[in-house]
Write a structure and sequence with these properties.
21% strand, 16 helices, nine-stranded mixed sheet, globular, UDP-N-acetylmuramoyl-L-alanine:D-glutamate ligase, EC 6.3.2.10, Protein-Tyrosine Phosphatase, Chain A, MurCDEF_CellWall_CoF430Synth
Length: 457
């Protein structure tokens, strides 16, 4: 965000400065966390069920912020050279400020949603666009009703393109994010069963994710996997051009796909362009699709195929997403960021297609999947069945994962993380490949770090 005075900030929020220096300048952006507070920033005191940001407003003003936006202010005047703006709803005002700033930005915005694969697709897309643009991209998991406004507000006048994630777990959450972001380009990575506990069906999930399709303008572009069974549904609900991508089909596609020890190679074929060879540094068929979605965006935003291929080859993905490392001859694959039935299936396929030495094992260590509600028992058992059918050695860990062990034919099941790590330390041998996956609440990475300690992972 560009520098503005406290008075100007209050005007944007439809109010006035309550107390303090009206002309103090906010030049350090916006923050909601006193632990990560840039100098000369504006602190928005958000409230939740278990916290009240107003209680930290004075601390924020004493530690770098020059303006505090709060819902109540009592007691002494703020420190010299600072100001306080009292509003009815700090979250609504944060979103209002983001809407105002987005209107000042004349840049192409790519919005990404889907049941899984959002972050890796964002990473690939940002890498591709960085060949020709200064890219504002979502950091970490800032993809919800708080994170998207913060991401928008972190965008500067020097940025020339944006790639922003949009997450949800309840109906009605994507629409306000689209109103803030105002994307021209959209990516829907897939429609799975993540958050089905709250939405009830894949059709309801598609309806919510499809909010992005409906938000795109007539000159916009919507990129979807060619294999998605909701593509016609999205086509009927968007004014934008729908562009399918996929392995062997679509306007942007991968041909001659082959897997290597640490990734894949394929020919990137884009309609009307000369094919180019791509070496993708991360394994998995689903990662190829994510890379193709990014390639499609790059194509429509003027990045030549040769530069797209180069960007994909050197893209760095956010941690916990199929990151590989070697531990005393064992190939360890860290896919612990999150999990749902579709991403579990993709991880199973990825490990099954991972080359190992003759006589070595492919071991998959799985934790529970969250937000499945009444669908959870069947989903966990199907995951175990799928892993066993792909000839993987299955280890289930933690409360809620016992159904995976049952589905895999009474595979080893540990409630204790240390016991699981001890089993792996005892049983794995050089040449084996071990993949770890589970929902964030499963904290499967604890087993991985205990069994295969690595300070840099």
């Amino acid at each position: 965000m560009k520098p503005i005075t406290a008075r100007e900030l209050a005007q944007i929020l439809g109010t006035t400065v309550s107390v303090g220096d009206r002309e103090v300048v906010v030049s350090g952006g916006v923050s909601t966390d006193t632990r990560k507070l840039p100098d000369h920033s504006a602190f928005f005191a958000l409230r939740g069920e278990n916290f009240n940001g107003d209680h930290f407003a004075r601390k924020a003003l004493e530690n770098g912020a020059v303006v505090a936006v709060v819902q109540s202010w009592e007691g002494e005047a703020p420190p010299s050279g600072t100001a306080v703006i009292v509003v009815t709803d700090t979250l609504l005002c944060l979103q209002q400020l983001a809407c105002w700033w987005r209107k000042q930005l004349d840049i192409p915005v790519v919005a990404i949603t889907g049941s899984n694969g959002k972050t890796s697709t964002k990473d690939f897309t940002a890498a591709v666009l960085s060949k020709r643009y200064q890219v504002s991209a979502t950091k970490g998991n800032l993809n919800n009703h708080i994170g998207v406004p913060l991401t928008v507000l972190s965008t500067t006048p020097e940025h020339t393109a944006a790639v922003w994630e949009m997450g949800m777990n309840h109906s009605g959450e994507i629409a306000p994010l689209c109103e803030i972001a105002r994307p021209k380009y959209g990516i829907i990575t897939n429609i799975g069963t993540a958050h089905i506990e709250f939405l009830g069906s894949r059709e309801a999930i598609a309806e919510e994710k499809g909010t992005l399709a409906r938000a795109l303008p007539e000159d916009g572009k919507l990129f979807v996997p060619a294999a998605c069974d909701f593509n016609e549904y999205f086509r009927q609900r968007t004014h934008a051009m729908l562009i399918p991508v996929g392995n062997g089909r679509g306007l942007v596609r991968a041909e001659n796909l082959r897997f290597t020890g640490d990734g894949s190679q394929f020919d990137l074929v884009i309609h009307g362009e000369t094919p180019v060879s791509v070496s993708l540094p991360v394994p998995g068929r689903h990662m190829v699709t994510n890379a193709l979605l990014a390639a499609g965006v790059g194509w429509k935003l003027g990045v030549p195929p040769e530069e797209i291929a180069d960007a994909l080859q050197y893209a760095v993905l956010t941690g916990g997403r199929l990151r590989r490392f070697d531990y005393e001859g064992v190939t360890v694959i860290d896919d612990t960021y999150n999990a749902n039935p579709e991403s579990m299936a993709a991880a199973i396929d990825t490990l099954a297609e991972t080359p190992v030495e003759a006589g070595s094992r492919r071991i998959i260590v799985l934790g529970r999947m969250g937000e499945l509600g009444p669908f959870a028992p069947a989903a966990h058992q199907r995951t175990g069945e799928l892993a066993a059918a792909r000839n993987l050695t299955v280890i289930a860990v933690g409360q809620g994962a016992e159904g995976i062990a049952v589905g895999a034919g009474d595979a080893p099941y540990f409630t204790d993380f240390d016991e699981a790590a001890s089993w792996l330390t005892r049983e794995t041998k050089p040449g084996d490949a071990v993949l770890f996956k589970g929902s964030r609440t499963a904290t499967i990475e604890k087993v991985m770090h205990a069994a295969f300690p690595r300070t840099s992972c």
